[in-house]
Design brief:
heterodimer, A: 320 residues, mainly beta, Immunoglobulin-like, six-stranded antiparallel sheet, five-stranded antiparallel sheet, B: 163 residues, 1 helix, 10 strands
Chain lengths: 320, 163
């Protein structure tokens, strides 16, 4: 009985994509025997083959359904393209918005495909636009790249409608029915063989049009120095603004701004969001007092939905 | 004259003994062939499988290895044992080792120990033991039950899957 501790005996070449294309795999047998009491042995020649290149890829949708409003521009879907083949391969990309099963076709922006170069998950200045035939991604086995599709939403789409936009990628070496061979075109002169997907893949993301109405209700309370409610010089004006959202959509990156009224002075440190104090400086909290004439109150409320609930902003000014 | 003849005969005898010694080492000609299964479908939709030389092999494909041992000497070979390491980058396919007239055993330690599958145990991280999986086999051994007669061929075959 042989008992072996099996810790680190497995070979380290364990790519998810499998043994690298161009690898030589050999098998060789030995024989031992006895003739007339004399032991002998022999070895066979090696039976060797070269591993061919399988052309395979995988696209995953990273974005969940993206909530948009009619007429939105440059809305982004995030995908990840992975080379699941066993050789380095180049993958030309394209966008396909003519997908069935949706209510409208998003309009591809120009350019419509970007590499998420800064890995932010969103379109930013550092992201490099894809140019077909110029910067087609070349990926080693198991390597992947994040790709953004950028679309504009038509102005005429109804609340609740869905638009699909797909990323298509294909192996530059060739596409065809699974098993199709491209002789001598694989890594290191091996044959390239179309994998289970035929060397191409297409995966769509979705935009959901959400109707959204944002309402602001502003109230003011006057407190004069005598304890009354007369707006005399030196009286304090306590402003309260309630931001409410209704509808199924999202108000993206909502920013509230309000100039300090003429003839008044902002009371330092009086800014509140949902009763929490915000500093007047431009810093990590949502609020700040912008310099200028007049000065302006600014509160960045982020993405607002009906589910998030009303947001209450408060600040105080004094009558000069 | 008579003395000379005896001397010459002695020379021949010595020469024959030397070649017999040399031949004994090379008495079995061993050959390995790598093939893949190809499925053909005829006009009536019937499928037949045949082995063709290994080509167009990508990860996940199975290769059929056939080892043939031919006794090219005039005497029977006893204790014939064929050993084949599972090729690097490949995993042994469970229950695929066959050889007419042989006992098959396996190793999980690069040929140090051989045993039947049930006796091959692997230690778990917690110290307990489990049966070794076929894909953990490192070597296959075929032991011939009977001598290999002059001119006879013994076959040993197994399948392995490319990682």
């Amino acid at each position: 009985m042989a008992i072996i501790a099996f810790c680190a005996l497995s070979t380290p070449s364990a790519f998810a994509a499998g043994t690298a294309a161009g690898t030589a795999v050999s098998s060789q047998a030995t024989v031992s025997f006895v003739i007339s009491g004399v032991p002998g042995s022999a070895q066979s020649g090696a039976a060797t083959f070269l591993v061919d290149e399988i052309l395979d890829l995988n696209i995953t949708r990273v974005s969940s359904t993206v909530s948009v409003s009619a007429g939105d521009v440059s809305r982004v879907l995030l995908f990840r393209l992975t080379n699941t083949g066993n050789g380095t391969e180049t993958f030309p990309l394209s966008i396909d918005n003519l997908i069935g099963g949706d209510n409208f076709d998003p309009q591809a922006a120009a350019p419509a495909i970007y590499f998420d170069s800064d890995a932010s998950g969103d379109l930013s200045a550092a992201d490099v636009a894809y140019v077909a035939g110029s910067n087609d991604p070349t990926l080693a086995p198991d390597a992947s790249v994040a790709i953004l599709l950028v679309n504009n939403i038509p102005a005429s789409v109804a609340d609740g409608s869905i638009g699909r936009s797909a990323l298509h990628a294909r192996a530059a070496t060739g596409i065809g029915a699974p098993g199709t061979t491209f002789p001598g075109q694989g890594t290191g002169g091996t044959n390239a063989v179309a994998g289970a997907k035929g060397g191409q893949a297409e995966v769509f993301g979705e935009y959901l049009v959400g109707d959204v109405q944002v309402t602001l209700a502003k109230t003011v309370t006057v407190v004069d120095p005598a304890g009354g409610a007369t707006p005399v010089p030196g009286a304090r004006l306590n402003y309260q603004i309630v931001v409410s959202v209704a509808g199924s959509g999202t108000a993206h990156g909502f920013v509230f701004t309000d100039p300090v009224p003429a003839g008044t002075a902002y009371a330092s440190g009086s800014l509140r969001l949902n009763s929490t104090a915000l500093s007047d400086a431009a810093d990590t909290d949502a609020g700040e007092l912008l310099a200028g004439a007049p000065q302006t109150i600014r509160v960045a409320l982020g993405d607002l939905t009906q589910a998030v609930g009303p947001q209450t902003i408060a600040f105080t000014v004094t009558i000069n | 004259m008579k003395r000379m003849k005896i001397f010459a005969a002695g020379m021949v005898l010595a020469f024959a003994a030397t070649t017999a010694m040399a031949q004994q080492k090379d008495c079995i000609l061993l050959k390995t062939v790598a093939e893949i299964e190809k499925v053909d479908t005829n006009d009536r939709g019937e499928k037949t499988t045949r082995l063709v030389p290994a080509e167009k092999i990508v990860p996940g494909d199975e290769v059929v290895y056939t080892v043939s041992a031919t006794n090219i000497c005039d005497e029977a070979a006893d204790n014939v044992v064929i050993d084949n390491p599972v090729p690097e980058h490949m995993k042994f396919v469970a229950n695929s080792a066959v050889g007419p007239g042989t006992e098959v055993s396996y190793s999980i330690d690069s040929g140090f120990h051989y045993d039947k599958p049930a006796a091959l145990k692997v230690s778990n991280p917690d110290g307990s033991q489990r049966a070794a999986r076929a894909d953990e086999y490192t070597n296959i051994r075929w032991v011939m039950r009977n001598p290999l007669k002059p001119g006879s061929v013994a076959f040993a075959r197994f399948r392995a899957k490319l990682e």
